[in-house]
Amino acid sequence: MPHRRRDLSWCELILIHDLKKLTNLGNESQKEMKKHRIYTTAFGSVYPHYVQKAEKKGRTKEEVDTIICWLTGYDRESLQEHIDNRTDFETFFEEAPQLNPNVSKITGVICGYRVEEIQEELMQKIRYLDKLIDELARGKAMEKILRK
Fold first, then answer.
1. Are 133 and 67 in contact (CB under 8 A)?
2. What domain range is 78 assigned to?
3. How many domains is the chain built from?
4. How many helices (H) and strands (E) does the chain have?
5. In the chain, at which residue ranges do the beta strands (DSSP E only) sit?
């Protein structure tokens, strides 16, 4: 039986190239680190790909929004403002009201890297989001995705 290739999200495709470097940065300061291009990418340009990935697997935009709000602390109105204003990923996560306290329960592999071992904080937050959207697309129950 031939191996079936898993659909990768748009964000995953962008991040694969440089993720290895970012996961192995160790103690380098952020000033020394060149910004990854995903940091300056508009969150609103990637958001439709999250929704599309979920909808292709029979899930909904509302579930995607619930996951993003759970992770970041945004309400749906402020989430939509960031999408409409084309806020970049760096600002999107910097301005997030509060990262969910259960974020440490998000574990596992995304693109061959364990999310809990990613050293760079912003990249880890982006990968947490990728992991949650991936779990949604794979059919995992919302209560498990939201670590309840």
1. yes
2. 38-145
3. 1
4. 7, 2
5. 109-110, 113-114
